[in-house]
What we know:
heterodimer, A: Methane Monooxygenase Hydroxylase, Chain G, domain 1, 7-stranded mixed sheet, 5-stranded mixed sheet, B: Ubiquitin-like (UB roll), about 35% helix
Amino acid sequence: MGTTEGPTYDVLIVGGGGAGLRAAIAVYESDPSLTIAVVSKVYPMRSHTVSAEGGAAAVIKPDDSLEDHAYDTISGADWMCDQDAVEAFVNEAPKEMLQLEHWGCPWSREEDGSVAVRPFGGMKIQRTWYAADKTGFHMLHTLFQTSLKYDPIERFDEWFVTRLLVEDGRCQGVVALEVATGRIQPIFAKSVILSTGGCGKIFPFTTNANIKNGDGMALAYRAGIPLKDMEFIQYHPTGLPFTGILITEASRAEGGILVNKDGYRYLQDYDLGTPQPQPVLRSMELGPRDRLSQAFVKEQEKGRTLEGEYGHYVHLDIRHLGEKVINSKIPFVRELCLKYENIDPVKEMIPVRPVIHYVMGGVHTDINAATPMNGLFAAGEVACVSINGANRLGSNSLTELLVFGARAGRAAAAFSKEQGGISSGIEAQVLDEEHRLKALLSSDGTEKIADIRDGMHKAMEEGAGIYRSQDSLEQSRNQIRELQDRYRNVAVQDSSLTFNTELTSVLELGYMLDVAETTIQAALQRTESRGSHQRTDHPDRDDENFLNHSLAYRQEDGSPRIDYLPVTITKWPPGDRVYGK
Amino acid sequence: MASTITLEVYRYRPEEESEPVFQSYEVPLRSDWVILDALNHVKDQEDGTLSYRWSCRMGVCGSCGMMVNGKPVLTCAAFLESYAPDPIRIEPLQHFPVVRDLVTDVDDFLGKLKSVKPWIVRDEEKPVEEGEYIQTPEELADFKQYSMCINCMLCYAACPVYGLEPDFTGPAAIAIAQRYNFDNRDQGNDDRMDVLSHDDGIWSCTLVGECSEVCPKDVDPAGAIQRYKLAGAASWWKSVLLPWQNR
Lengths: 581, 247
């Protein structure tokens, strides 16, 4: 089932979602003679970019400015992002979005045929491009279909990466498992880009797809690269109970309101402004996601939420928008409610509750998507540049895929051109990895995958959710450590080589446990509250001690050690986050 | 109502079985569970060896299409209750080779997708610095429906022509070709004509319309094919009879 022989590429990209595909095309644009491989555990059009709904931000209208986009992003992030990265991001966003328009993305339009924009949470000017409410879907399919025209982009569809190959201080490829056949082999490369997305599945209730297991984060972490700002995890305020299906922020941007069990627009009690009949930018329902999710918890504590089979919830009311607006601007919201919740939002209110949506943290990179390891780059949700800081603004992540995907592609292409061959001696690592995987397949472990996963979910939700404390986090840490021990005795019933999804589930569970530990440890040591990280025992922001990124390094015993790196401030000194004024 | 329901699941592991078999699993009949939830229950609690694809569980990634009681559906959008109380028969999408259990080999579709040049083709690219191409809401509406295809391949499983003639380009790929043909930014109609007007292109379609029936996104591939036959045929004949006018 294995071999130490494998092909060599100039640039290898792990992950075929928005960031990975944009990176692949950028490598080609840099130099069409370079060889490119995209390795993905799913067919690229299945990638989780597909689920993004609301839109992608970029300054294009005359009443907008790069300065405003930067300020909204930085204040939304509670000053935790690097401002040089944000400036680069807002500068390059319009060009990248236009490029996607030229590649055929079906952006929604104004009457005059120009690209339309809509409001979004935390943004003071309308700057969110959208393709109805399937923006991520259209962006992904546009990128995927466009990528098909570039012959040098070779794909390894449904190949699962299990390890990075590092020799002589340089990342030189990966070991991967061909899921269909069980074949294990190295794929060598002069540079590697990680673009595997986030890790929402470390929590039980999430908008994230089943494939979001922090693969790339764990691969990098195990190779000695730090994960940055992992304590910052975003709850989206409006998910459907049970399924966790996202009801896009665009539903509030178009005028939807949040009401408690008494029909009261409760956000007015949480320093988010006063209710108006029309949506007001940076106010009420268009406040940032962290503040809205926190308001939900407070409202629950006051006993003013509703209670259902899957916990507490409030109502999102879009009935007043009318059928026509709903069908034209947010048709997917209606489709999802009808198909999955059996309610028609034209006539009924939508039950919603906060749901894990996005991880601001990720593999530590610089502004060019380079990690501290030679030859290794990262872009998209897997990476932390950081432009998202302590709380990402809605509609920045899709744009981030393009801007930093392209940056990663260009940087990796330039790096690869300077490199010689693959180091000799690297085969030993391939053999090691093959032995590890074979041992898993023939393991006589007794612990059920689902039990360990459930334990992890419980530990994360109870200890590292919207509000955290030293006690809750310490308890979670102990639970995860115990689960790590149990994981070493995990049972694999399926010994087949053909499309063995139990094997890939075990590997994913291993990734998630490692990533979960970094989140907990970073959260434990950040004794302040900022953005999405709220400590009940340290309720205030502490710029003096914590205007720093956390960096989680893996230690010999597998546990994380946290280090810190100052946040880069260029023009915008830390200030108060003011909404609703 | 019974509190459980039986799934009869197609099993095929090429290393162990020379022929497919059906295996029954009894699962809780919960009102909010779709078939995919029940399969996940089996995988997690009863039988870790069952293989199938899934990801988003919200009908947009296109991974979890299967034959359910003989019909191609997205299993994330098929509630158990709508099949109760009878057993539910779950098989891999028909017309595709089976890799294992409920997993099919879909590379044939990917080849066909690429063959229709599903990207914007232009004689001259406008520099990005000059801004967007103008496209009115009406121009967008002209192709938008065809751009909604999630590549779930239910239409191929439903298409009797594809079942008999595997070389047929097929509903989704033709719909996606039309998505670009009708996009006012695109100038690639002639490039795509070679594939679409080929014997295995649109002319294979006998307008059964099953593809549009099963499409979970109302893409209406049958309509896209019909539209090509009507509009495309004229220019195709023109190109054959008067080649110097088109090329």
